[in-house]
Amino acid sequence: MELLYLRARYYRPEVGRFVSLDLLRGKIDRPRTLHRFSYVLNSPTRFVDPAGLQCSLDIFTGEVECFGAETGMGMTVVPDLRILPAESTPRLSPDLEGIVREEAPKFGVPWQVVAGVLKSELVLDVSPMDFFTNIFYAVMTEEFLSEIWYAPSMSWRDPGPGIGSVHVSAAYNTASYFYEFYPSLPSYHAPFGYNPPRLELGSPGQVTRKLATDGQCNIRVVAAIVRHLADYRFGSCGWPSLRSHAWLSEWTMTDAVAVWHGYRYGVKDISVRAIGFKLEDFQNRSLSLPLLIGVARGAGAEESMRGSIPYFEYYFSRSEERPYYYRNPWLYYPD
Prior knowledge:
Blueprint: E1 4-6, E2 9-12, E3 17-18, E4 47-48, E5 55-58, E6 64-66, H1 94-103, H2 111-124, H3 128-139, H4 142-149, H5 168-181, H6 204-213, H7 215-233, H8 253-265, H9 279-282, H10 289-295, H11 301-316
Antiparallel strand pairs: 1-2, 2-3, 4-5, 5-6
Helix pairs in contact: 1-2, 2-7, 2-8, 2-11, 3-6, 4-6, 5-7, 7-8, 8-11
């Protein structure tokens, strides 16, 4: 007897049934969702479930329904294309945390800050639909994805694929920033493994596919964007501070929350289509956290910023855990 592993459950093709329970428990007010051996409510002609969970996409209306014990929210693609449900714990899964610890030092930022940003993104800014759009980005051709990029009338222009929901325009913008301000950087600084300038990143379709399918690359770009924002957060008068920010002792909770909000909503004059902060407010480190929240902009800004605090508190508590620092001259690591 051969069993097929379909993302989250094992399937026995001889009898056409799953032989393991769905991880999502269903809802008492939706009786059909309580049958945890079923597939898409036993309606495969209407629904599809590429995740292997009871998270169904109506192929006629495009609507998504998830029947989780929590809410079904907080699901995204991880490096091996599994689904990551929202967790009550403030920490990332061990595999994601391991990638963050590997990638963050390359860009001279504390892994704890990058982990807090990524956890906040997963919990506060990811919906079930993001998983299905990632599947779309993964299966479409690079030519088609490039056409989306160049078609301003399409609602999916400038996609934000992958676990960090990294928008392609943000990746290009950060790569361009490194090329302009750190022209002597080694080639690995470019998030996609290409040498600068920005035009060498590849087509928008290539970048979209890579962000959607390569989890480590996606987290590398998250770390790069955090470094980009940190340079300006610790800078002044509209200019970045071109040095390493690798020591967590340099960071305050307000700094971390400011970078998270800049990551999600952008900073005017340095981000693409930025609405989160004016640059002068973003660089004003004399503002307390409540005052910083008061000057932040964006739908749900206060809830987003306050919601990130538990994740940063958890990772700041792990300040004694120092990663291996890559010894590169441009990072200016202290001895």
